[in-house]
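Notebook p. 47: complex prediction with phosphoric acid mono(formamide)ester.
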Amino acid sequence: MPNLLTMNNLTNETIMQLLQRAAEFEQGDLLKLGGTVANLFFEPSTRTKMSFEMAEHKLGIASLPFETGFSSVLKGETLYDTVKTLEAIGVDAVVIRHSEEEYYRQLEGVGIPVINGGDGSGQHPTQSLLDLYTIWQEFGRFEDVHVTIAGDIAHSRVAKSNAAALTQLGAKVSFVCPPEWSGGFETSNRMDDYIEETDVMMLLRVQHERHAGGELLTKEQYHERYGLTIEREGKMKSSAIIMHPAPINRGVEIADSLVESERSRIFKQMANGVFVRMAVLEYTMKGRD
Ligand code: CP
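Predicted complex, structure tokens below:
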């Protein structure tokens, strides 16, 4: 019964198998997996939640809505007892987003697959897989593709998941952010050092909600120093693409008009998320009784 909790323990072979299956789903594979999944989102989400629901719909899986605000979690029920309850009533797998990093360690005794939809500032494996799928579609390889990840690295589960997986697959990964947001990575605070040579400019959202101590820079200052401005975009290679996991702060990490520009793959990433999540649901649920 495989879970999908982090990118850190996926082999290149498993990653490539998942991307291949995503491609087959995109090309029209009509697998009907059946079964029942509960989507437990304890933090807000639009893309991850809705694309899991779409993936479940396409696979003939019944999605059980779980409203955290009306559940017995409010009476103090633990995450473990919540998931054990869902298992007892016949749910085949759970997708969970939670504010607590590595929340899934509490769930080691559960008997159904757990798919991590994002844990605090920890990991976001399905976002990473859809990012990898988008890069692979574009370049046909990972080796020597230069990916620059720019933004709120310290708070970003996307940066952490992608840094590990991209490096393991042979890509060159650079990080750009204010020094205070480096999160232990070797980073540069000079966006202009990478703009001309990068193949993928991956921008991250400034996570205002996780900045308890207030903002370092105004939105205008951030855009000027670390954002993808129109001027910087003009220096990118003709083959280079723009990515962003979204939601986007338009005019902060990226100029408004670049979000839907020719280089942008931001909405393609969202479309790819459905096929990748179909592959992940199949991977985790296939061996069930
Ligand atoms: N990219 C992403 O995880 O978006 P949501 O927070 O809307 O799910």
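Notes: The beta strands are 36-41, 62-66, 93-98, 114-119, 146-150, 172-176, 200-203, 241-243. Helices lie at 12-26, 47-58, 79-88, 125-139, 157-168, 219-226, 230-233, 266-285.
Next step: compare against the earlier run before touching the bench.
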